[in-house]
Amino acid sequence: MYERAPPPAQGFTEVMAYGMPAYQRDGVAEIAFASQKQYLSFHLLRGDVRDALAGRLAGQDMGKSCLRFRKSGSVDLDLVRDLLRATAAAPGPVA
User: Fold this and answer.
1) Contact status, residue 66 vs residue 42, Cβ threshold 8 Å
2) Architecture, CATH, for domain 13-89
3) Gap between the Cα atoms of 48 and 70, Å rounded
4) N or C: which end of the chain has fewer CB within 10 A?
5) Distance between CA atoms of 14 and 52, rounded to whole angstroms?
6) SUPFAM superfamilies from the entry (predicted)?
């Protein structure tokens, strides 16, 4: 998923945060990716973006900030791209 998802935009730095590839802006990680034993995860650390796209996230396997995909073929790349675009559109609070 990380390889297929484009970087959010200029102003973000690609880093390793908590052992995961992440994108940070102004020194704060806003997005991270992880490959767990049972699933692939997309960590969306911006509550405002989660709230704005709540309708699209409904029905997804979602924790507080972790969007989980059980199989690599089930990754909704359009949703991931939209989350990246919404995060890149403007800075916001990290929850």
Assistant:
1) yes
2) Alpha-Beta Complex (3.90)
3) 25
4) C
5) 24
6) YdhG-like
